[in-house]
C-alpha cells in the first residue's frame, strides 16, 4: 500500500486551469453527445432555422480566418504583457487556445453539411484558397485538443526555463500556421503555411540556445527548407501542367504526363516526408527532440509531423484520385498511377517503421527513444497511406487506418513526451539507465505513462490497438487483393509491433520499476497544471480505446464518403468493423509475448547497449559518395602539391556525423575550392575574355555554317 | 511643353543638377541635398507619367534636332524603357534618401559634392541608355556610365579601391570595345545604327553577310556580358562592389548591371529578332551561361568572409536568374526576367543599404561579426532578414514570385534541367544567407542591454530601409498590378 | 585572285590585326601601362574598322566644292561617330593612367603580378 504524502499545490493558476480543462471535457462530452445524438441534440441543432440560415450565409466561411487569426491575436496580447505580468501572459495564451478549441468543436455540424471555402484571387498572381472539409477537420480538432492541453502543460513547465515569453509567442504563431496548413485549399497556400511553420517552430527548437540546440536547429531548418523547395518544385510543375493548384482531382490531366506524374508525387512525398520524419530523411527528428523544451517536442511529435502526413494524404487523395463522377470501378485505368505510387509508399513506410524501432531500442535518452518511436509510428501511418493509394477504389481501409493512427499517435506520443518532461522536470535527468524507482514518487505520472505505453503498444482497450488492427487489416488486404509480396510487409509489421512493446517494457522497467540507489528524497508530490493536462489526455486515450467505433463514425466515415472510395466497401467493411475479433486479439497476444521475449533476451545479453559505429549511421552512408568526393577534392584540384589545411582535412575525414554535418562539410569544401580558384580566376581577366570570345564565335559559326 | 520632350527633360534635369552642385559649394550642403531630391522627385513623377502615357496612349518618338532617324539620334519611350526608367528612378530615389542620411561610408566630407555629381551623371547615362534607339548612342552612354561608375568605385581614396577600379576599367573597356566592334560589324552589313532601321534590314543582311552578323552577335554578347557580370566575366564585380561605398554598391549591384543586361535584351530582341536568334541557337549559349552563373555565383558566395563581397557574388548568381529568363527567348521568360530585375533590385538595395548601416555604425564587414547584430540594429537587421529570405525564395516576398515565374517559364520551354538548377541555387542561397540571420538574432544576447546606448540612427536612413522591406513584401503579395506593365514591356520587345 | 581580295579589304584586315595585337598585349603583359596601351591599340583597331566601312573607292572627303559637280563623297557618318569614340577612349585612358599613378603611389609597383601578390599578402594578414 502506497502512502500518499501530502499533496502540494504550488501553481497559482492550477484552479483556473482545472476549470478550463473541465470545460474542455464538457466540450468533449458535447461532441460525443452530438455524434451519438443524445436527447436528439443532433436533430435539434441541424434542423433548427438559425443553423440552416448559418449554412446559407456566406459569412460562415470566414470562420477559417477567425480560427487562424485567434492564435495570432493571442500571441500579440501575450507579447504585450510579457515578463511584466506572467500570470496574464500565460492566461492570454491559454484562453486563446481554449477559444480556438471551442470554435473548432462547435464547427462540427457546419463542416458535416458544408465545406467551408474562401478564395482570394489575384494574390501571388495565382490566387489562394482556404478550405476546411472533413479531412481537414479531423486533424484540426485533434490539433486543437492537443494544443490546448500542451499549452496548459507548457505554461507550468516553462516556469523553470528562460525567455518564456518568446517561447509562448512562437508557440502561438506555430499554432496559427498549423491551423492554416490544415485548412489550406490549395498546394501553394499549404506550402506557405508550411514554410511559416518551419520558421516559427525553429524558434521553439533552439529555445535552449546552447551549442547542441543550435546544431540541431540548423539541421531542422535546413531540412525543412529543403523539403519546402521540393514542394515548390512540385508546385511549379503542377501549376505549369495543370494550371490549377486547388485540391481537386487532376488525374485525367496528370495521366497525359507520362513519368512526370511520378516525379511530381515523389517530390511531394519527399517534401512532406521530411516533415513527417520518413526514412531516410528523418535525420532531423531524433536530434531535435532531445534539445527542444518538452512542450515543443510534444507538439512536434504530436501535431507537426502529422501535418506532413496530412499533406501526403491531402495531395494523394485529391490530385491523384479520380473524381467520383469519372470513376467506373476498381478496374478503372485512372487508378493505375495511384497504385504504382502506393506500392512505393507502402515500402517506404515499412522501412521507416522498422528503422525507427530498431534505432529506438538502442537509445538511452528517453526523449531520443520517443523520437525514434515517432519515426516508427509515422511509418505505420505512411504504410496506411500507401495502402490507401495502392488499393485504389478499395483502399478505404488504409486511409481509415492512417487517419485513425494519426489521431491515436498524436494523443499517446504527446502524452509520452509530457511524461518524459515531468521526469526531467523533477530529476533533471533523461538517461534511462540512471533513473529508476520513480513509480513510488510519481504515481500519477506512472499511471499516465502506463496508459500511454499500453496505447502505443497496441493493447486491447487502449487506442493504439484499434488503429494498428485496422492498419494490419489494410496490409492483409494489400496482399490479398494486390501483390503477394506484401506478405513480407505484414511480417515486418508484426515484428515492429513486438519491438515497440519491448521498447516500452524496457522504459517502464528502467525508469519506473527498477530499484536504484537514487532516493529522490527532495521530490515533492504535487498536483499542478502538468498533471491536469496529462490526465485529460489519458482519459481521451482510454475513451477511444473503449469505444472504437466512435472516431470511425464521427470523423473517419465522413472523410471516406468525401473521398473517391467504394461506398459499398465503406458501408460493409468499415462502418461495422469489429476490431475485437478473436484473430486480432490472438495476434496481439503473440506480439506482446514476442515483445517480452525480446526484452528478456536483450536485457540478459546486453543487446540494448549495442551501439552501431557512428559512421554506419544513415546520414553518413546516405551521403558517403559526396563525402569521399569532398575529402579528395583538394587532391583532385591541386594534384600532389595539395597544400591541405590540416584542420579542414581533419574535419572532412571525421566519421561522426554528429560533430560535422553535411552542410559543414560542404562549406569547408567550398572554402578549399575558393582558396584555390577565386584569385586565379580574377587574375586571368583578359584570358577568360579572349577564350570565351573565340569559343563562342567559333561555336556560333559552326552551328550556322 | 510637349510630352515628347519629357524624356529629354529628364536627362537635362540630371545634367543640370550635376552642373549646379559644384556651383553650390559654398552654400550649406543641405541645399544641394534638397535640390537633388527635388530633381529626383520630378524625374520619378515624369517617368511615372510617361509609363502611364505609353501604356495607355501611344509610344513616344523623338529625334534630336529634327534630323531624320538614319542620320540623327532618336529617343523612343515605349513600355519597355518607360518601365525601367521608372524602376531606376524609384530605386535611385530610395538610395538617395538613404545616402543623404550621412551614411556615405568612407567618403571624405569634401568629396560629398563630387559623389553626388557622379551620381546624377550616372543616372543620366542610364536613362539615356534606356531611351535611346541608336546603337552608337548607346555606346556613348555606356562609356559615360563606365567612367562614372569607376570614379564612384575609387572615390574612397583608399589603397584597394584603386586596384579594383583599375580592374574594372580594364574589363569594362574590353567589353565596350567588343560592343563597339559589334556595332561596327552591324553597320557594315546594314548601313544603319538606328535600331528600328537595322531591324528592318537585318534579315537581308543576314542572308548576304551571315559571318558579319554572327561575329557581331558574339562580340555583343560577350561585351555586354562583361558589363552585366555574367559568370565567367564577373571577375571585376566582387572587388569593385566591396570597395565602393555602400550606397553606391547598392546602385551598382541593383541598377547598373541590370541596365547592361537590358541593353543586351534590346540588342537581342530589337536588333537581331527572334528568327535569327533561333537559327543561331543563341538560346543554348545563354542558358548554359545562366546555369553556370546561378550555381557558381552562389558557391563562391558561400566561402566569402566579407559581407559585401558575399553580396557581390550573390548578385552574380542573381544575374544568372535574369539571364536564364532572357535566354529562354519567350514571352514567359522575359516576363520572369523583368520581374526578377525589379525584385532583385529591391532586395539587393535593401541588403546593401542595411549592411551599409551596420558598417557605418559598427565599422565591421566580416560575416562573423554579425552575431547578435539583431539586438543592436533591429531595423537594419530586420530588413536584411526580409531581403535575405526573399533571396532564398520564401513565400510572401517578391523573390518567391520571381522563382515561381522563372520555374513556369523554364517549363514552358521544356528545359526541366534548369528547374533543378534553380532549386539547387536557392538551396545554396539558404546556406549562406540563413546563418547570418540566425546568428544575428540569437547569438550574443549580451548586446541586448546596450540597446539604449546605441547611437540613434537618423530617420532618413531608417525610412528608406523600412520602405524597401515593405515594398518587398507588397510586391510579393500583389504582383499582378506590376505584372501588367511588365507584360506590356515584354510584349513590346516581341513581335 | 586572293591577293586582290586582300588588297581590296586591306583596311579591314589591318583593323583586325590591330585589334588582335592589342588583345595580345592585354593578355600577356602584366605591366599596367602596357595593358592600357594594349587597350588603346584595340580601340584604334575598332575605330579603323569603323572608318574603313565609310570608305568609298575614289571618294573625296565630304566637303562640298562648289566648283566641281557630281562629286563622289565618302560616307561621313562613321568618321563623325568615331570622333566621339576617340574622345571617349582618350578620357578612359587618362582616367586609367591616373589610377596607375595612384596605384604606384600606394604600392610602389605597376606590375600586375606583384600587385596581386601584395594584395593577397595584405588580405592574409587581416
Q: Brief overview, please?
A:
The complex is a heterotrimer of chains A (705), B (495) and C (126). With 495 residues, chain B is an all-alpha fold.
Query: What value does the Rg of chain C take, in angstroms?
Result: 21 Å
Shape of chain C: elongated
> Helical stretch count of chain C?
5
- The fraction of residues assigned to DSSP E strands of chain B is under 5%
Explained architecture:
- The complex is a heterotrimer of chains A (about 700), B (about 500) and C (about 130).
- Helices cover about 75% and strands about 0% of the residues of chain A.
- With about 700 residues, chain A is mainly α.
- In chain A, strands 1-2 form a two-stranded antiparallel ribbon.
- In chain A, strand 1 (about 115-120) and strand 2 (about 130) form a beta hairpin.
- In chain A, helix 5 (about 85-105) packs antiparallel against helix 7.
- The longest helix of chain A is centred in the first third of the chain and has 32 residues, at about 210-240.
- Chain B has about 500 residues and is mostly helical.
- Chain B has a two-stranded antiparallel ribbon with strand order 1-2.
- In chain B, helix 10 runs parallel beside helix 12 and helix 15 (about 380-390) runs antiparallel to helix 17.
- Chain B starts with 5 loop residues before the first helix and ends with a helix.
- The model of chain B has no long low-confidence stretch (mean pLDDT about 85).
- In chain C, about 75% of the residues lie in helices and about 0% in strands.
- In chain C, helix 2 (about 10-30) packs antiparallel against helix 3 (about 30-55) and helix 3 packs antiparallel against helix 4.
- Classes of the chains: A mainly alpha (about 700), B mainly alpha (about 500), C mainly alpha (about 130).
- Chains in contact: A-B, A-C, B-C.
- At the B-C interface, helix 5 and helix 6 of B face helix 3, helix 4 and helix 5 of C.
Amino acid at each position: 500500500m502506497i502512502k500518499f504524502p501530502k499533496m502540494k499545490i504550488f501553481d497559482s493558476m492550477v484552479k483556473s486551469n482545472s476549470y478550463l480543462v473541465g470545460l474542455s471535457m464538457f466540450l468533449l462530452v458535447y461532441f460525443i453527445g452530438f455524434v451519438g445524438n443524445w436527447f436528439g441534440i443532433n436533430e435539434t441543432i441541424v434542423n433548427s432555422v438559425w443553423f440552416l440560415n448559418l449554412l446559407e450565409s456566406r459569412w460562415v466561411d470566414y470562420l477559417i480566418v477567425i480560427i487562424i487569426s485567434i492564435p495570432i491575436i493571442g500571441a500579440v496580447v501575450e507579447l504585450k504583457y510579457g515578463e511584466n505580468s506572467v500570470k496574464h501572459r500565460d492566461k492570454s495564451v491559454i484562453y486563446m487556445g481554449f477559444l480556438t478549441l471551442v470554435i473548432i468543436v462547435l464547427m462540427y455540424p457546419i463542416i458535416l453539411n458544408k465545406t467551408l471555402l474562401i478564395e482570394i484571387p489575384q494574390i501571388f498572381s495565382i490566387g489562394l484558397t482556404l478550405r476546411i472539409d472533413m479531412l481537414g477537420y479531423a486533424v484540426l480538432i485533434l490539433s486543437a485538443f492537443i494544443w490546448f492541453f500542451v499549452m496548459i502543460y507548457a505554461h507550468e513547465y516553462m516556469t523553470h526555463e528562460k525567455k518564456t515569453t518568446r517561447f509562448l509567442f512562437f508557440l502561438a504563431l506555430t499554432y496559427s500556421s498549423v491551423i492554416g496548413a490544415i485548412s489550406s485549399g490549395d498546394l501553394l497556400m499549404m506550402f506557405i503555411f508550411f514554410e511559416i511553420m518551419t520558421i516559427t517552430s525553429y524558434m521553439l527548437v533552439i529555445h535552449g540556445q546552447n551549442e547542441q540546440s543550435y546544431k540541431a536547429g540548423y539541421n531542422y531548418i535546413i531540412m525543412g527548407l529543403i523539403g519546402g523547395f521540393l514542394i515548390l518544385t512540385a508546385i511549379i510543375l503542377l501549376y505549369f501542367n495543370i494550371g490549377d493548384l486547388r485540391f481537386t482531382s487532376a488525374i485525367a490531366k496528370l495521366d497525359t504526363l507520362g513519368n512526370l506524374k511520378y516525379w511530381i508525387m515523389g517530390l511531394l512525398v519527399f517534401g512532406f516526408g521530411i516533415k513527417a520524419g520518413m526514412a531516410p530523411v528523418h535525420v532531423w527528428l531524433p536530434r531535435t527532440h532531445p534539445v527542444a523544451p518538452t512542450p515543443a517536442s510534444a507538439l512536434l511529435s504530436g501535431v507537426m509531423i502529422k501535418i506532413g502526413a496530412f499533406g501526403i494524404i491531402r495531395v494523394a487523395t485529391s490530385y491523384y484520385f479520380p473524381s467520383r463522377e469519372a470513376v467506373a470501378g476498381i478496374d478503372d485505368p485512372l487508378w493505375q498511377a495511384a497504385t504504382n505510387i502506393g506500392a512505393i509508399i507502402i515500402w517506404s513506410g515499412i522501412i521507416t517503421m522498422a528503422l525507427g524501432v530498431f534505432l529506438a531500442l538502442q537509445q538511452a535518452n528517453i526523449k531520443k527513444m520517443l523520437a525514434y518511436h515517432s519515426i516508427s509510428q509515422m511509418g505505420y501511418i505512411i504504410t496506411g497511406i500507401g495502402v490507401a493509394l495502392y488499393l485504389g477504389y478499395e483502399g478505404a481501409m488504409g486511409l481509415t487506418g492512417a487517419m485513425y493512427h494519426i489521431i491515436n499517435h498524436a494523443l499517446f506520443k504527446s502524452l509520452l513526451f509530457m511524461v518524459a518532461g515531468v521526469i526531467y522536470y523533477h530529476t533533471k535527468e533523461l538517461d534511462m539507465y540512471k533513473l529508476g524507482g520513480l513509480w513510488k514518487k510519481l504515481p500519477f505520472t506512472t499511471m499516465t505513462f502506463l496508459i500511454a505505453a499500453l496505447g502505443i503498444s497496441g493493447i486491447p482497450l487502449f487506442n493504439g490497438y484499434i488503429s494498428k488492427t485496422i492498419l494490419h487489416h489494410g496490409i492483409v488486404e494489400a496482399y490479398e487483393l494486390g501483390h503477394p509480396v506484401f506478405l513480407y510487409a505484414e511480417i515486418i509489421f508484426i515484428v515492429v509491433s513486438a519491438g515497440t512493446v519491448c521498447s516500452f517494457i524496457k522504459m517502464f522497467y528502467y525508469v519506473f520499476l527498477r530499484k536504484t540507489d537514487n532516493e529522490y528524497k527532495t521530490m515533492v508530490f504535487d498536483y499542478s497544471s502538468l498533471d491536469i493536462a496529462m490526465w485529460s489526455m489519458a482519459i481521451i486515450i482510454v475513451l477511444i480505446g473503449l469505444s472504437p467505433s466512435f472516431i470511425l463514425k464521427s470523423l473517419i466515415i465522413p472523410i471516406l464518403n468525401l473521398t473517391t472510395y467504394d461506398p459499398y466497401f465503406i458501408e460493409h467493411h468499415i462502418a461495422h468493423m469489429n476490431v475485437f475479433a478473436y484473430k486480432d486479439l490472438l495476434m496481439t497476444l503473440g506480439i506482446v509475448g514476442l515483445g517480452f521475449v525480446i526484452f528478456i533476451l536483450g536485457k540478459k545479453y546486453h543487446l540494448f547497449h549495442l551501439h552501431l559505429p557512428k559512421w554506419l549511421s544513415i546520414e553518413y552512408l546516405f551521403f558517403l559518395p559526396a563525402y569521399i568526393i569532398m575529402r579528395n577534392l583538394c587532391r583532385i584540384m591541386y594534384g600532389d602539391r595539395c597544400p591541405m589545411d590540416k584542420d579542414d582535412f581533419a574535419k572532412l575525414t571525421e566519421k561522426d556525423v554528429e560533430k560535422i554535418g553535411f552542410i559543414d562539410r560542404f562549406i569547408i569544401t567550398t572554402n578549399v575550392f575558393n582558396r584555390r580558384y577565386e584569385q586565379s580566376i580574377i587574375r586571368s581577366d583578359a584570358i577568360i575574355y579572349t577564350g570565351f570570345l573565340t569559343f563562342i564565335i567559333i561555336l556560333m559559326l559552326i552551328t550556322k555554317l | 511643353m510637349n510630352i515628347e520632350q519629357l524624356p529629354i527633360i529628364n536627362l537635362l534635369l540630371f545634367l543640370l543638377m550635376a552642373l549646379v552642385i559644384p556651383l553650390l559649394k559654398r552654400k550649406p550642403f543641405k541645399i544641394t541635398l534638397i535640390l537633388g531630391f527635388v530633381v529626383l522627385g520630378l524625374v520619378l513623377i515624369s517617368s511615372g507619367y510617361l509609363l502611364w502615357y505609353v501604356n495607355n496612349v501611344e509610344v513616344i518618338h523623338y529625334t534630336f534636332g529634327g534630323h531624320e532617324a538614319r542620320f540623327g539620334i532618336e529617343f523612343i519611350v515605349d513600355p519597355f524603357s518607360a518601365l525601367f526608367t521608372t524602376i531606376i528612378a524609384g530605386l535611385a530615389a530610395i538610395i538617395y534618401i538613404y545616402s543623404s542620411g550621412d551614411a556615405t561610408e568612407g567618403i571624405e566630407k569634401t568629396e560629398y559634392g563630387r559623389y553626388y555629381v557622379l551620381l546624377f551623371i550616372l543616372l543620366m547615362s542610364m536613362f539615356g541608355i534606356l531611351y535611346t534607339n541608336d546603337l552608337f548612342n548607346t555606346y556613348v552612354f555606356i562609356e559615360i556610365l563606365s567612367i562614372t561608375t569607376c570614379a564612384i568605385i575609387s572615390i574612397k581614396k583608399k589603397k584597394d579601391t584603386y586596384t579594383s577600379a583599375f580592374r574594372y576599367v580594364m574589363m569594362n573597356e574590353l567589353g565596350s570595345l567588343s560592343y563597339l566592334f559589334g556595332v561596327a560589324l552591324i553597320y557594315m552589313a546594314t548601313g544603319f545604327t538606328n535600331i528600328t532601321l537595322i531591324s528592318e534590314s537585318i534579315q537581308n543582311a543576314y542572308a548576304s553577310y551571315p559571318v558579319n552578323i554572327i561575329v557581331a552577335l558574339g562580340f555583343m554578347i560577350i561585351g555586354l556580358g562583361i558589363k552585366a557580370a555574367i559568370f565567367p566575366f564577373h571577375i571585376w564585380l566582387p572587388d569593385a562592389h566591396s570597395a565602393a561605398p555602400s550606397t553606391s554598391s547598392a546602385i551598382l549591384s541593383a541598377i547598373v548591371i541590370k541596365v547592361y543586361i537590358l541593353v543586351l535584351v534590346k540588342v537581342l530582341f530589337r536588333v537581331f529578332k527572334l528568327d535569327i536568334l533561333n537559327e543561331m541557337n543563341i538560346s543554348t549559349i545563354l542558358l548554359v551561361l545562366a546555369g553556370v552563373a546561378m550555381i557558381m555565383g552562389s558557391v563562391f558566395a558561400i566561402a566569402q568572409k566579407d559581407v559585401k563581397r558575399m553580396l557581390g557574388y550573390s548578385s552574380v548568381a542573381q544575374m544568372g536568374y535574369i539571364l536564364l529568363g532572357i535566354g529562354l527567348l519567350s514571352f514567359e521568360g522575359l516576363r520572369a526576367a523583368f520581374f526578377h530585375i525589379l525584385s532583385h533590385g529591391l532586395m539587393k538595395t535593401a541588403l546593401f543599404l542595411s549592411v551599409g548601416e551596420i558598417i557605418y555604425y559598427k565599422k565591421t564587414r566580416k560575416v562573423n561579426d554579425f552575431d547578435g547584430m539583431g539586438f543592436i540594429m533591429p531595423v537594419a537587421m530586420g530588413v536584411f532578414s526580409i531581403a535575405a529570405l526573399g533571396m532564398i525564395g520564401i513565400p510572401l516576398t517578391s523573390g518567391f514570385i520571381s522563382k515561381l515565374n522563372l520555374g513556369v517559364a523554364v517549363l514552358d520551354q521544356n528545359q526541366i534541367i534548369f528547374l533543378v538548377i534553380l532549386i539547387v541555387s536557392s538551396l545554396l542561397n539558404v546556406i549562406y544567407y540563413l546563418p547570418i540571420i540566425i546568428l544575428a538574432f540569437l547569438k550574443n544576447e549580451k548586446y541586448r542591454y546596450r540597446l539604449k546606448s546605441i547611437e540613434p540612427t537618423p530617420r532618413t536612413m531608417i525610412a528608406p530601409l523600412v520602405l524597401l522591406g515593405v515594398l518587398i513584401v507588397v510586391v510579393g503579395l500583389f504582383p499582378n498590378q506590376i505584372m501588367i506593365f511588365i507584360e506590356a514591356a515584354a510584349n513590346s520587345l516581341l513581335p | 585572285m586572293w591577293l586582290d581580295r586582300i588588297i581590296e579589304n586591306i583596311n579591314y584586315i589591318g583593323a583586325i590585326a590591330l585589334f588582335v595585337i592589342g588583345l595580345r598585349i592585354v593578355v600577356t603583359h602584366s605591366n599596367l601601362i602596357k595593358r592600357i596601351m594594349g587597350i588603346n591599340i584595340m580601340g584604334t583597331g575598332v575605330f579603323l574598322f569603323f572608318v574603313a566601312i565609310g570608305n568609298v573607292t575614289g571618294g573625296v572627303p565630304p566637303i562640298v566644292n562648289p566648283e566641281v559637280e557630281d562629286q563622289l563623297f565618302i560616307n561621313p557618318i562613321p568618321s563623325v561617330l568615331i570622333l566621339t569614340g576617340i574622345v571617349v577612349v582618350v578620357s578612359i585612358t587618362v582616367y586609367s593612367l591616373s589610377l596607375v599613378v595612384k596605384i604606384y603611389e600606394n604600392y610602389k609597383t605597376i606590375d600586375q603580378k606583384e600587385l596581386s601578390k601584395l594584395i593577397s599578402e595584405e588580405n592574409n594578414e587581416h
